[in-house]
Amino acid sequence: MSARRMGLPDELRTDALAQALARAVCGAGCIYLQGPLGAGKSTLARGFLRALGVTGAIRSPTYTLMEPYEVDGRRLLHMDLYRLGDPEEVEYLGVRDEVGEALLLVEWAERGLGFVPEPDLKITLAIEGEGREVMLEAFTERGRLWLQSLPLLTD
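and the corresponding structure tokens:
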């Protein structure tokens, strides 16, 4: 496993990270977004999807559990499993059919363990004063390549 930690003092830096991730992440795979409520998971997800080319409204999947997007022939699935009553409910979303075909961006993945794919990359956000701290951890070769392609963010 390889990892990187960095500070995100404001929303502009979070957006810069989202854009850098969009340039580094290619193909299908799975990214977990973790952290407490209000840590910035949805902000990072919106910036990431926007940087990948999603236009129009980017709806929060808080109540729908999953929002699909199609950009230049690439399938993107933004999932938020916070409201799952049981991890098995992930089966009804058809995620298994998307593995290897889509890029999955999963908030609250721990609520669907055993039914969501293991992550290539896990992004953990923590509240640090007025800003955030982020830990990026790669768990697969694909994730390591993404993390190595991620430029250092500087002021």
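(Above: one complete record from the training split.) The chain has one domain: 2-149.
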